[in-house]
Amino acid sequence: MNKTIAIPFRIKTAITLSLIIAAVSFLTMCMRKEKTAKKITSKDFAGSASCQSCHKNIYDTHINTAHFHTSELATAASIKGSFEAGNNIFPYANGTFMAMEKTADGFFQVQYSGANKLQSHPFDIVTGSGTKGQTYLWWDANKLYQLPITYFTQAHQWCNSPGFPERAVFNRIITSRCLECHTTFINKISAPEIPKEDFDKNTIIYGIDCERCHGPGADHVAYQTQHPADSTAKFIINPAKFTRQQSLDLCALCHGGKLQKTKPSFSFVAGDKLADFFTWDSTAREALDIDVHGNQLGLLKLSKCFLQKSTLTCTTCHNPHQNEKNELIVFSQRCMSCHNKEHNNFCTITSVDEKILKRNCIDCHMPKEPSRAIAVFLPGEDKLSSSLIRTHYITNYPVETQKYLDDLARSTKK
Ligand code: HEC
Ligand code: HEC
Ligand code: HEC
Ligand code: HEC
Ligand code: HEC
Ligand code: HEC
Ligand code: HEC
Question: Ligand 3 within 6 A of 131 CB?
Fold first, then answer.
């Protein structure tokens, strides 16, 4: 017997309605998921040249920043090291040597044993603006490798690439995480489980460009171009509107020390929560445990300025669109926006003239320290030479203060 259960009309509508609501909310949930998990492709980017027409001032200063130059196509202009005879050799202890050679086909690192050429690979990509140094990458089909010789700016010399053994090694693979910190975008074409990643080299966007910090901008450029009368921005991220955490997370993607990724590289977009994409080791609690290279956030977080002023972020002191390297007077003015006589928290050192203090808070409170991570062996030396980098642990440094005062006394005596 066919049992039919009579359902009153009102309940029927209610069931249908709730089914519809469930379906709709399921769909929107999927769409939302779709939106956050949307895979970014090279088509989403417009390139910074296209921002120039409407944001000329920012564009013009941005192209002088270390960010913009942190990766480039290898050319005579972008490679800082010398190819001239006498300056182009790096000798290994085992008797072989590397020569940096320029030919009609380009630039190469060539390994020799005596007069025998053993192997040779091209400089394809330059990483590093050259403030501290440059490391070079070469393409083997769709895979990228690091070349064994690096340029070390502090010594104006070629040197063994950091962490490389004392012999020519050409098989050090470059990962998407390396490129995530030094380029704006590249499309990975190999499956996630393959450790030696393949990239689509035509999709690379060199440098840390506008769209690394503002998100892909193709839709913004298309919209603002089609609607020139609309002076409100559409389809672009403005970090000026971020919370403190969002603002710090954007810089920490690359300046936050060693992060372990839990999602594919290049999925994090400005405004996202870093913790949704990475886990990191937060055990190092002493400034001495944190290397001055690559972990400015870790050090800043230990400083009283950061702990006691909840609005302080990286952009309190750094203008992300300008190269302000060595402009210590400008930076000191930013310190004095908080530390001044009116607030009764100005520098307490009394042995130094106020005029001198005001010119340079930095050398005494954020001295340069040797990095353990950027340290290289120079030819013929058995001790590591370290890059000197500003600490972001802002505090009192009596030894550095004495050194600064001694240097000052010496220069005024002259
Ligand atoms: C056709 C003109 C045009 C182009 C091209 C253009 N923009 Fe814009 N942009 C605007 C206008 C108009 C505004 C809104 C007014 C303003 O803030 O200057 C704006 C605002 C912005 C803002 C601030 C957003 C906000 O919410 O206030 C950012 C960031 C930005 N643009 C980045 C970019 C980047 C990056 C590019 C290149 C990929 C770019 N723009 C290309 C016209 C343009
Ligand atoms: C995608 C990675 C990435 C992001 C995001 C990023 N940086 Fe950097 N930053 C770098 C790299 C790489 C360098 C080294 C550039 C070089 O010299 O080759 C650098 C260098 C710098 C420098 C030194 C500039 C100089 O003249 O030597 C400052 C200051 C800086 N970043 C501040 C910031 C701030 C502030 C933010 C957040 C608004 C930020 N960065 C976001 C990767 C990044
Ligand atoms: C977590 C992000 C991150 C990763 C991964 C990373 N770097 Fe860097 N790198 C930085 C930052 C930030 C700086 C500069 C600031 C500093 O020294 O603290 C820098 C500096 C450099 C410099 C010196 C640039 C200069 O002249 O100042 C070189 C060269 C370099 N990196 C190459 C590489 C290569 C090659 C890889 C991959 C094998 C790599 N980096 C991986 C963030 C990163
Ligand atoms: C290293 C990250 C970074 C890069 C690269 C970068 N910006 Fe920005 N941009 C920021 C941050 C952070 C802010 C918000 C600054 C603030 O808090 O006032 C910002 C703000 C802006 C604004 C809004 C200004 C305002 O007053 O609201 C515009 C427009 C803009 N950027 C355009 C560009 C363009 C165009 C480029 C490339 C030529 C570029 N940015 C490159 C980080 C970056
Ligand atoms: C946004 C405000 C702000 C800025 C900008 C700022 N500070 Fe601070 N700083 C503070 C606060 C708040 C404290 C903790 C209370 C105090 O000592 O005044 C502090 C503490 C300090 C201390 C004492 C540290 C210790 O360990 O006892 C020194 C030194 C210092 N700041 C130097 C600087 C220097 C140098 C700069 C610029 C590079 C700077 N600050 C930028 C807000 C700021
Ligand atoms: C209180 C001010 C202040 C804050 C906040 C601050 N910085 Fe700096 N930063 C400086 C000064 C000053 C220098 C040295 C500039 C120079 O010597 O040219 C510097 C230098 C740097 C350098 C280059 C280091 C080197 O020696 O090559 C990087 C990278 C950097 N800052 C990143 C950041 C990041 C990322 C944040 C946020 C986590 C941040 N800074 C927050 C003041 C600050
Ligand atoms: C010649 C080195 C030197 C210069 C330059 C200098 N300071 Fe200091 N500062 C010190 C020393 C050392 C102390 C702590 C010892 C003392 O009070 O004698 C100190 C103390 C401070 C304190 C108080 C720290 C505390 O323990 O509460 C602040 C804040 C500060 N300085 C900020 C600044 C600012 C901002 C500037 C730039 C306008 C600056 N200093 C320039 C060496 C210097």
Answer: yes
